[in-house]
Specification:
Helix content is about 40%, strand content about 15%. It has 13 helices and 15 strands. The strands form 3 sheets. It has a 7-stranded mixed beta sheet with strand order 4-10-9-8-7-5-6, with helices on both faces. Strands 1-2-3-13 form a 4-stranded mixed beta sheet. A 4-stranded antiparallel beta sheet has the order 11-12-15-14, with helices on one face. Helix 3 (about 55-70) runs antiparallel to helix 10 (about 285-300). It is globular and about 60 Å long. The two termini are about 25 Å apart. Bound molecules: pyridoxal-5'-phosphate. Pyridoxal-5'-phosphate binds next to helix 5.
Amino acid sequence: MKKLIEMNEKYMMNTYNRAPIALVEGKGCRVKDSEGKEYLDFLSGIAVCNLGHCHEDLVKAVSEQMTRLMHCSNLYYIPAQLELAKRLAQHSGLDKTFFSNSGAEANEAAIKLARRYTRMVKNDTAYKIITANKSFHGRSLTTVTATGQLKYKNGFDPLPKGFIHVPFDDLGALEKAVDDKVCAVMLEPIQGEGGVNVPSKSYMQDIRELCNQKGLILIMDEVQTGMGRTGRMFAHEHYGILPDIMTLAKALGNGMPIGATIATEEVSKGFEPGTHGSTYGGNPIACTAGISVIDTLISENLISNAAKMGDYIKEGLKGISERTGKISEIRGKGLMIGAELNYIDEGIVSRSLEAGLLINCIDGNIIRMLPPLNIGIEEADEALRILEEQLEGRS
Ligand SMILES: *Cc1c(COP(=O)(O)O)cnc(C)c1O
């Protein structure tokens, strides 16, 4: 490990504070480091490996595609891309997809589409986009501007114009921010990086209604919440609403980099040949992975397992809360779970890692769990036991 840490320091730009392990293999919800130590993975590479690590069907589909064709560009038709776009339309109720390679790119495309549709199709000069405080939409200059957290923006001025931030789950604040220059509202159905914040159902429904009345485009950033994570294929289903544009990435490829921007037929008119593009976007390998992810989520009933196991883990956390008195709130849906501690515990992640459990912690007090969707009772119990021991073990 010492060698790797030295190399990281010498050759890598300093953008991450990494845990002192290198994960070299994984199967299901367990991963192994370079020294052979095993971990229960309750992070899934940040909500990416929803099928767990190295799912057999996915590995087979992707390896087969690799032997045939890895890349050909979007100057030609790509069968796997069309199959994936068809599945996304069928499962979302939206119509058309643009493929990219990451969440930031999917959101960048959504922002460009919303603006261009407003300008070129509606012939309207509105351009502002309302987003929420504590949101996270990516690291490109525009998506970092859309993001409602200052810590991601410091030092990057000048930032693009045209974004307004309002408190999350506060309809009045959002209504007040709407003027005739606003063209869209962009929200996560459940905020991930901001601390697993679940808004009220009526908030989301009222926003849909407001967008209908004012002719605003509703963009749902489902990069983290999508692909069954919250116990529904897409988290906006919990609110009984449909956005005009939805973005996906993370779990869509289960580790193969892919992003998708999916819109209604109408809003999709904002793009024409030459207005947006991506060299890699929607390449045969990433799309083959996406098809395998969707088909496996369905064939293995992983979405209902996520709902069931999410309830089970939250129940377990409630028990921990009662026994330790150290958890002040348990939030989330399905297997996107946040447990807020009533104290700052900077060491909780490294102590859990030492004990064989990978978790994440936001702001030193919000423990985030994002296990693969195919975890069982045994693994959940093991994770809960480790977590409880580590809470108790604080000095
Ligand atoms: C992770 C994330 C992104 C950014 O995705 P990248 O693939 O890292 O660019 C955007 N939005 C949300 C909600 C995310 O969780």
